[in-house]
Design goal:
The complex is a heterodimer of chains A (193) and B (316).
Chain A: H1 4-27, E1 33-34, E2 37-38, H2 41-53, H3 55-72, H4 79-97, H5 105-128, H6 137-164, H7 172-183, H8 189-192
Antiparallel strand pairs in A: 1-2
Helix pairs in contact in A: 1-2, 1-3, 2-3, 2-4, 2-5, 2-6, 3-4, 4-5, 5-6
Chain B: H1 2-29, H2 35-98, H3 102-108, E1 120-130, E2 138-141, E3 154-157, E4 160-168, E5 173-177, E6 185-189, E7 195-201, E8 204-211, E9 224-227, E10 244-252, E11 258-263, E12 272-278, H4 283-292
Antiparallel strand pairs in B: 1-2, 1-12, 2-5, 3-4, 3-12, 4-5, 6-7, 6-9, 7-8, 8-11, 9-10, 10-11
The chains are: A mainly alpha (193), B alpha+beta (316).
Chain lengths: 193, 316
Amino acid sequence: MRPSGAQGALGARIAALSVVVVFVQIGILSEVTIFGVNIELAPLLAAFVGLLCGSMSGAVAGFAIGLLVDLALVQTMGITSLLLTLVGFWAGRLHEMRDPQGALVPIVVGAGAAGVAFVGYALIEFLLGVDAPVSLQLLRDIVLGIVVDTIVALPFFLIVRRALQGSMPEDPRRRRRSRRTYSTGGLSPISRS
Amino acid sequence: MHGKTVRRRRIVLVLLVVLSIILLTAYFGESSNGGLHSVQRGFMTVVSPIQDGANAVLKPVRSAAGWFGEMLKAKDERNKLRHELAQLRKSVVAERSGRKTAHEESDIGNVDHHVQLAGYRPVNAVVVLESASLWYQTIDVNKGSSEGIAVNDPVINGEGLVGKVTAATSETAQVSLITDSKFWVAARIAGDRSAGMLQPKVGNPSDLLLQYLPSNTQASEGELVETSGTVESPYESLFPPGIPIGTITSIESESNYQVNVRPAVELHGLDNVQVLTIAPGSRLSNLSSGLASLPLSRGGEQGAPPGTGFAAVEGK
């Protein structure tokens, strides 16, 4: 069990990061289009918090980020929270069960998070009943949205990791370094004594 | 210890999911004056000074980002505008030739003398926020109810119809663009005067659909589509007649006569807009407040497509 002070520090960092990311998203990135679509950082943030801090932190952060997005953009409340809760939890479970270490992991997780968020949002909107006719271009935009989020996933992951470093349950760099020591034949504490 | 962690994790997940579903259900079912909508408006009120400040500070960054984007598509845009100019010239000629006399118009009953632009008070506003979502096409402006802006007020700019107000606090208002999935408006073809209902195609911001046109409609590509400003009681519209919406790009007449329309307004990167506020106590004001109290459920359930600016739509 982690000390409550460390948990509090992590929570504060995640909260601050969420607010900054949501404001950057709606203040700057909404003006920038790549391949005709905007970059959506909210699903990536929820996924990366889960990937770095675990399923509980991921789920809670996802819910809070979703609520913030729905409040700030005056959207139907609850949809983004629901989706990002699942995204954060899924990424956290991936971290807890498989602990993937490859350089491509953030890209794959980012693509998965964007896919769940975009497709899930469309499904929920359809379930709630869409008034307007839906263009086939929506499919193209969903696919392009996933591609664009996949492209920005790695640099954004590095930013998130940097922002949370020092407060994370396990520091990935420290853990990797210690593993490398054993794999290259370093002495274990037992043989050293 | 491990079992306790697993249990706690599951409980947290279930709690959050259930909370999200409760929020979603409650929000979807309540009217625009309901508790959750009030919370959203409260949040808008709190963050609007931050948005104003951030808008001023980040404007150079946004402009730079926008400049690069604009440069990339400038040539394409130029060709598109040339094509549009040619189409508009054609539509002006068509409109002139098809214009009826004032006497004929009064006989047909298409001209209304009760709703004029004079019944509206324009309020100039600056766009402070642009939402980027496939499903929600909205902007926030820096004027609110303290300037007389209310839900359902039409929003225009120099090029034509931009959208309508969907939420307002004292200092800020949210505008749903004409490409928002929940937007409907009564519109007509300028030359032919055939009226129908216009709504966007979700996922394609350059395509609007004018539906429910009479089967004898005579439309041609390039013709101008404008608000019809209907005042007959079942279809009464809050939008004044004659605001340009876009030009016809194609016609579909296989099953139902409907036309595809390209918006006249470049909705990305809007800076200044004008909100047509309605004088309090007027007939339109009563209509507007009646609409605002309707639940935000989907079309057909409450007699009017949501956020349409229509008092009622019979038989839909």
